[in-house]
Amino acid sequence: MKRNPALQTNTVQTIVGVDFSGASDAGRHIWICSARPRDHDLIIEQVQPAETLCGGSYARDAALAALREYLSGRSGVLAGLDFPFSLPAAIIGESSYRAFVSGFAAKYGSAEAFYAACRRAGRGRELKRATDIEAGAPFAPANLRMFRQTFYGIRDILAPLIASGGVCVVPMMAARRDRAILIEICPAVFLRRLGLYSPYKGPASRARSARSSLLDALRARFRLGGLTQPIRRLIVGQTQGDALDSVLAAVATFSAWREGRLGMAPRGDLRQIEGEIF
After folding, report:
1. pLDDT by residue (tens digit) across 256-270?
2. Residue 260, exposed/middle/buried by CB under 10 A (0-12, 13-18, 19+)?
3. Which long-range contacts (CB under 8 A, 24 or more apart) does 132-136 make?
4. What distance in Å separates the CA atoms of residue 84 and residue 273, rounded to the nearest whole number?
5. What is the spatial distance between Cα 211 and Cα 241, in angstroms, rounded to a whole number?
6. 226 within some domain
7. Which residues form the domain of 102?
8. Cα 92 from Cα 121, distance rounded (Å)
């Protein structure tokens, strides 16, 4: 893929990692890590749940609205979000990604209707995209544990932001300097690529130690800075691992950008409609 000038080093000023949720109290489970790239370092500036964003709340609708506002129209921002941006082409049935997202809400009236339709399309099987298979993603987009994230992520984040012109979604769209650029990431995939995956979620002391060790490994490998004691205590102490996942999302986004792996998929490439996990 040809690298877009909007993704050059001097145009990306903020890296954002989003650990997403489609739960009814999503504002408590969506976490956002904001960081600043500096030379070859990534400096963590803030880690927070969506309920603390301007206009945010623990309730899903308010949290998603606040996240949309946070991402919309922010030039110099490259954000990685950990939900599937698309579906297998066999389910989509549209000629373009824009057509797919613009008609998504009308086609699927609820998360449950979306899940049922995907099950029918797969004749009871959970169909994966090419990128899910290549990356070794743990779940298909319409998996029982994943379908709400996929549904609310596409319907309430991507579709309205694309419709308003507030973001560019790579690799389906060309990046622009005056828009926030969004990519799909997966913390579990990223950790396995690094050879660092180990259980880190939960209140047990072993899980807490694992969160601390992962932060140390990320700091060493990616020259991760800004881990003040308050921020470190917040990340390690958040037992569900959502805060750490937002940091992993930011680091995965930073890594893909620094390695030059971002860009618009060529015409006819399956990634133009199915997307890609970076």
Report:
1. 999 999 999 999 999
2. exposed
3. 132/84, 132/277, 135/186, 135/189, 135/277, 136/189, 136/192
4. 12
5. 8
6. no
7. 5-194+245-274
8. 10
Give the pLDDT confidence score for residue 5 in this predicted structure.
61
Residue 7 CB-half CA count within 13 A = 28
Residue 235 lies in a domain: no
| Residue closest to 231 by CA, chosen among 15, 44, 34 | 44
DSSP secondary structure, 71-131, as one string: HTT-TTEEEEE-S-S---HHHH--SSHHHHHHTHHHH-SSHHHHHHHHHHHTTTS----HH
Local structure of 24: helix, strand or coil = coil
- Identify the burial level of 162 via C-beta atoms within 10 angstroms of its C-beta, where 0-12 means exposed, 13-18 middle and 19 or more buried: buried
- Tell me how far apart the alpha carbons of residues 180 and 177 are, in angstroms, rounded to a whole number: 8
With respect to residue 75, please indicate whether it lies within any of the assigned structural domains.
yes
Judge whether 47 lies within some domain.
Answer: yes
Low-confidence ranges of the chain (pLDDT < 50): none
Q: What is the pLDDT of residue 22?
A: 97
- Tally of residues, the chain: 278
User: How many domains are there within the chain?
Assistant: 1
Cα–Cα dist 16/61, whole Å: 21
Q: Is the peptide bond before 203 cis (omega within 30 degrees of 0)?
A: no
Question: Please, is 125 exposed, middle or buried when counting C-beta atoms within 10 Å of its C-beta (0-12, 13-18, 19+)?
Answer: exposed
Place of tokens 């489970």: 29
State which amino acid sits at residue 149: Q
11-45: buried (b, 16+ CB within 10 Å) or exposed (e) per residue? bbebbbbbbbbbeeebbbbbbbbbbebeeeebebe
| Global pTM value | 0.94
Would you state the pLDDT for residue 193?
Answer: 94
